[in-house]
Structure formats: C-alpha cells, structure tokens
Amino acid sequence: MFQDYCPNGLQVEGCNDVRRLIAGVTASQWLVDAAAARGADVLLVHHGYFWKGEDPCITGMKRRRLARLISADVSLLAYHLPLDAHVEFGNNAQLARVLGFVAEGQFGSGPGPKIGCFGTLAQPVAATELAVRIAERLGRAPLHLAGESGMIRRIGWCTGAAQSYLELAADLGLDAFVSGEVSEQTTHVVRERGIHFFAAGHHATERYGVQALGRHLAERFDLAFEYIDIDNPV
Questions:
Q1: Are 220 and 197 in contact (CB under 8 A)?
Q2: What is the enclosing helix (H) or strand (E) of 158?
C-alpha cells in the first residue's frame, strides 16, 4: 500500500463517454486549457490535485483549474507514486528504457513499496559520457555532481524529487544515482560518499510514464490519444 501525498485515480469526474484521452505531467492551468481546447474527455496526469497539507479551500488558482475542467466536462485521472513505481508503465521503468539502464531491483525507505531502482549499464561509461547521454535523450543538460569512480557501471535512479535516496544508493555501493531535483545537502553527500549524482530535471524525468500508460489505455479501450508537453525547466 502506497503512503502517498494525494488521492490516486479519478480526482475530477467529467463526461461518461470517453473517446479522447490526453496526457501530461502536471495538471497546470496551461495543460487543462490545452486539453479542453483539443476536446479531451479525460486528462491523465502524474501530478494532480488535493495534496496533503495544502489549503482545502477552492479559491484562486485551484478554483480556476477546477472550473475549466468542470465546464469542459473533462475527467481528471492522476497517479502519483503508483505511476513512479509501476514495473512496465512507471516513470522509473520508462526512464530506464530511455537512458539504457538495466533494472535489477528496487530500494527505498519507509513503509509501502520501494520506488527507487538500481541496476547496471550494458557497458561501463565515464561520468561525462553519461551526462551527454542524459542531455541528448532528455533534451536538457543535467547537473552533474562528480563522485570518485572513474567509470560508471552500477547505477540507481528515481524520477522527480528523490535526491534524498542518494545515501541509500551509496549504501548499495552504486557508482551513480540519477534523479530529477537536487538539494543543498546533496553536494555534501557526493563529496563525502564518493557517489556521482545527476539532477536531470523533475519534469524531464517524469514525462515518460504518462505517455506509456496513456498509449496502453488508448489501445486497450480504442481511444484517440495525445501527449501534451508543457515545458518546465525544473
């Protein structure tokens, strides 16, 4: 059972008949407007609404987003940690496919399923080569904090804001860890544990799960499908 920060599944109910499915990473106003303009019946996202600890009042930005969905009769489906962890359609599985990582197992902390992944590269590469690969395949240069090992073969990864997994990755004896975001303390962990760290972007690392799941649903239920990328430099 996932200990998640938001409800997963149907968050906003729209029309009953579904013919057109649109997917994106985050249910921002721009994505909601684009989906409604394209005639979506369902909007599938990784980052939806109703996060724990947020103000529950439906005002301002939240009201405008919900009002647009409801007025356009668009349902909102959001899957957070379950989409990160899914072994086929998940963000981590799809990032491994894009970057050429071979998964061997999962790791993490706390209750619930483990989300972080570890594995190997088919051929060991220099850290600079891996940085180039990430930049070419994700379309943006990662922030690389250099570790000690000359070549990288054993690697861990977890999309989004999983920089706190870095010490766990070091405990596993991995040469490098790839995530989306970076924190101030990440630099010190790298320096003191000797593991390479690549911050490849929260949005950039989480674009692939919703696309894989969306294509699967479209094929399964004979739907028109489109992915809309709302650029985010973070």
A1: no
A2: none
Concatenated DSSP letters of 64-118: HHHHHHHHTT-EEEE-SHHHHH-TTTSHHHHHHHHHTEEEEEEE--SSS---EEE
Here the tokens at position 196 are: 């390479």
Q: Are 214 and 44 a contacting pair, CB within 8 Å?
A: yes
CATH value of 9-80+207-227 in 3.40.1390.30, 3.40.630.10, 3.55.40.10, 3.50.50.60: 3.40.1390.30
CA distance linking residue 189 with residue 177, whole number of Å: 12
**How many Cβ atoms from other residues are within 10 Å of residue 229's Cβ?**
15
What are the domain boundaries of the chain?
9-80+207-227, 84-205
DSSP assignment of 29-69 equals HHHHHHHHHTT-SEEEEEE-S--TTS-----HHHHHHHHHH
Q: Residue 36's CB: how many other CB atoms inside 10 A?
A: 17
Tens-place pLDDT, residues 104-157: 999 998 788 999 999 999 999 999 999 999 999 999 999 999 999 889 999 999
CATH fold for domain 84-205: 3.40.1390
- Whole-model pTM: value is 0.96
- Check residue 103 and give its pLDDT: 96
β-strand 116-126 against 176-179: which pairing, if any? Answer: unpaired
